[in-house]
Amino acid sequence: MTNHTLQKSMFQSGCIFAGSAVVLGAFGAHALKDLIEPTQLETFETGVKYQFMHAIGILIIALSLRKLKEITAKRVWYLFMFGIVIFSLSLYFLSLRAVLGFSEQFKAVGAFTPLGGLSFIVGWAYLAYDGFKLTDLDSSSSRKHHSKHRHHSSEKIGSPEL
Asked: What pLDDT is stored for residue 150 in this prediction?
């Protein structure tokens, strides 16, 4: 996958996840409020909130791809998508299982939710640790700044002030 293709795929998936979060949020606010208990609706809304936040994260990564290490950006993208699917989908299912006719049968789906949350955490930590790419321009200007700073420092040390 070329950098442009990767960026386009990230951008499109971020848009799809963000757009579907808006649709699901509207569905929850209008269609579900009379069908499920308030605690279940809160669970549903938590799934929507995390889906939307991480969709925006994917969009930011896509738009920042030139300043990020490509392999790191790709891995974080996968971690965020996995997190959205596992975390948010399990919360949607848990909050809707009674409406879907599953009642207590699939309560164990909640055991997967933390895996999605962990995927989000690992993605953010990995991005913070290894995401930013130091370009040749950045490193050369950094070297100039440091050598310039050392030059001025030695002048101050060697010349007495009157």
From this structure: 54
Give the phi and the psi of residue 100 in degrees, each rounded to 5: -80, -5
Compute CA 145 distance to the chain's CA centroid, rounded to the nearest angstrom: 33
Contacts (Cβ under 8 Å, ≥6 apart) of 52? 17, 18, 21, 22, 25
Torsion 69-74-76-80 (CA) sign: positive
Neighbours of 3 (CB within 10 A): 11
Helix ranges, 64-111 (H): 70-83, 89-96
What is the per-residue pLDDT across 13-58, written as a single tens digit (0 to 9) for each? Answer: 999 999 999 999 999 999 998 899 999 999 999 999 999 999 999 9
Tokens of 140: 């050369």
